[in-house]
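dumping these here so i dont lose them again. two proteins, back to back, each one seq then structure tokens. dont judge the mess
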Amino acid sequence: MDYLPFILFAAVVVAALLIGVCFSAKRRKELAAWAQAHGLGFSAGREEDIEYRYPNFQCLHQGDNRYACNVMQGRWHERECAAFDYRYETHSTDGRGGQQTEVHEFSAVVLASPVPLKPLSIRHEGFFDKVAEFFGLDDIEFESAEFNRRFHVKSPDKKWAFDVIHQRTMEFMLSMPDFSLQFGADAVIAWRNRKLKPAEFGQAADLIAGILDRLPEYLVKQQMGQA
């Protein structure tokens, strides 16, 4: 029996595992250094309670076997901040009845808001959004055609969306890198469907902070019960 193919296969698997371990160690080192440089604490270990800390964020409740790692926590622009890599699994059945597991990984940043918030989601406008628009399933449209081309906005309260995304906020968002955003009751999450580079964590945090900093005074008073 020729064992060479099996030996080669095993060698490839071992090499892939070693490369993965090396990349993981390199990433931990880079993120730990970035966190320290920005006054954030860093923990490389697995944390399985992130989804319970942020029950409103849909991106943290997909699939199963979910957990965060490389968690960075502290304050950013005077707001409580948590940034992390996130992993979850989805399962499907192939044509022979066997189960296949797919691992998904992405990074996210969460900033707390002292102002109570309402649901709002903002993401990059995609091809299927344009198809949906053709069939009348529109997102919320704003006065800026450039903003509408770039972003897909949803909220059960359109007035809230218009109050939050006014002209200055639109101009600010158009000047920043794109991230998917979701407002929870007391925090905002920004993420991409991949792992972020260290500097991109800062960009995501700056984007959230910039939007919250631009909430109109009348809206802040309204949400704080001072209207």
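---- next one ----
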Amino acid sequence: MASYRFLTTWVIGAPRERVFEAIHDAERWPSWWKGVESVVELEPGDDEGVGSLGRYVWKSRLPYRLEFEVRTTAVDRPRTMEGVATGELAGSGRWRLSERDGATEVVYEWDVATTSRRMNALGPLARPLFTWNHDVVMRQGAEGLSRLLGAPLLAGGP
């Protein structure tokens, strides 16, 4: 398996609670995050979503789709959310949010490995393309969140 570690930071000119709610409501991502084709809740979790299981389908600039499931393992509203992925990507992700002067810094850590033979075979040569593609998708997320909240995007790249 090819492993990847991504770190993305967004700064949105909106209160942390609003940013957290938008990110926490993953089933709405396809309405504002280009590249997210679908998010379907397969199993509900507790009141905060801990234990929930969702299926995510992503389409990006490169000619492939990724499908994986994420089990939410921790939610500390409005500071953090964590989950474990299985499927075409396997690993963990964590959202961390902090607020300063009315702006919210969102840090996303995504430590995953590809599980498909095709992606693993391409991994050594295509790693720069996969990294570029991830960065594009995350930038689209920052831009979409900014539009959704009607708030300025103060920083939005990996």
